[in-house]
């Protein structure tokens, strides 16, 4: 597979993708917590 060979040759691409995924996940958790927190406090 072309993409698999590319990721094996250039490891930094895989780490860059992982960093993007982690950043998006942390951002979603943070904004989701802010959005839901007022609803939980008054329940």
Terminus-to-terminus distance = 52 Å
Give the helix level as a range of percent: over 70%
Residues in β-strands, percent: under 5%
Rg estimate, integer Å: 18 Å
* Mean model confidence by pLDDT: 95
- Main pleated-sheet profile: none
How would you sum up the global shape? Answer: rod-shaped
Number of strands: 0
Structural domains: how many: 1
Could you state the order of secondary-structure elements as H and E?
HH
Describe this entry's structure for a reader.
Helices cover 91% and strands 0% of the residues. The N and C termini lie far apart (52 Å). The protein has helices at 2-9, 11-41. Helix 1 crosses helix 2. By secondary structure, it is mainly α. The chain has one domain (2-41). The chain is rod-shaped and about 55 Å long. The protein has 2 helices and no strands.
Short characterization:
With 43 residues, the protein is mostly helical. Helices cover 91% and strands 0% of the residues. Helix 1 packs across helix 2 (11-41).
Offer a few descriptive terms.
43 residues, 2 helices, rod-shaped, mainly alpha, 91% helix
Secondary structure layout:
Blueprint: H1 2-9, H2 11-41
Helix pairs in contact: 1-2
């Amino acid at each position: 597979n072309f993409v698999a060979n590319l990721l094996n040759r250039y490891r930094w691409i895989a780490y860059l993708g992982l960093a993007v995924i982690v950043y998006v996940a942390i951002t979603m958790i943070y904004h989701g917590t802010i959005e839901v927190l007022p609803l939980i406090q008054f329940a």
